[in-house]
Amino acid sequence: MFRKLVSALAITLATAFAATAEPVRFAVTDIEGLEALQQEFGGFQKELSKLTGLDIELIPVSSRTAAVEAMNSGHVELVLTGPAEYVVMKQLSDPRIVVAWQRPDYFAQIAVLANGPIRSIDDLKGKKVSFGSVGSTSQHLGPAQVLADFGIMYGKDYEGVIISRNVAAEALIRGDIAAIGLNYGHLNSIRKAFPNAAFAVVARGRDLPNDILVARKDIPEEVFVKVREAFLKHGNELMGAVLQGDDNQKFKGGIFITDVKDSDYDYVRSMYRTIGIENFGSFIN
After folding, report:
1. Cα–Cα distance list, 107 to 84, 180, 181, 184, 249 (Å)
2. 86 contacts 71 by C-beta, under 8 angstroms
3. What pLDDT, in 10s, does the model give residues 9-58?
4. List of domains in the chain
5. Any idea what the Cα angle at residue 116 is, between residues 182 and 139, rounded to 5°?
6. CA 55 to CA 77: how far, in whole Å?
């Protein structure tokens, strides 16, 4: 009888603790608005809550800077971000790495018209090359690094311009620019959007460092361990929940990587240096 009472009391206390425990707040740097965040990560939120026993709460942030501010002010515990954003976030917040989220076929490349005048990477000297979002790993920094790896230097050997993807494709077709820097998925979307045009790739880069989930540096240790072990032991279940989101299909076929360290992102730091940025203390606009 005594043991039953003790057991019942333990269950009651555990339930009361779960009900009163502070939520673990999760943000994503490239999704704006709570509705969009819930659509993409609602299933993941439920699965992570179930596997950890923690109250996982989705918190929308309006920008990369807002995510850093939320972390530094103690308003968010977990942030999923891209590799370029992580490098700056590391400088500003010194977060702890939880796990990397692999994106298969995540590499930068330089695309041209298949029947156009550019036949080799050297043909781009003195020409205009467009990039996507400023500071994007796969649309700006990565393509610039690809060119630099082939000896075509940013701001010196060609004119770099920032143009949105479909507008850049139209400019390429008209002959206003010579090439577009973008990732594999974006090239596929351009091919679908412009079926009457043929595109070719004159240079590809190495696989880019993965997206990464980081935790606030002063997150309670027991919370950090529970979250990390959930990815370590239940990666398949969590990935299945992630893939319920349409935009999250970029992670399809990928895995969660727990053996990851800050130095794995030194390649991203070299990309920043390629475009002339030596200080990683602020996001570029």
Report:
1. 13, 14, 11, 6, 16
2. no
3. 444 434 434 444 789 999 999 898 999 999 999 999 999 999 999 999 99
4. 2-104+210-274 (3.40.190.10), 107-207 (3.40.190.10)
5. 10
6. 12
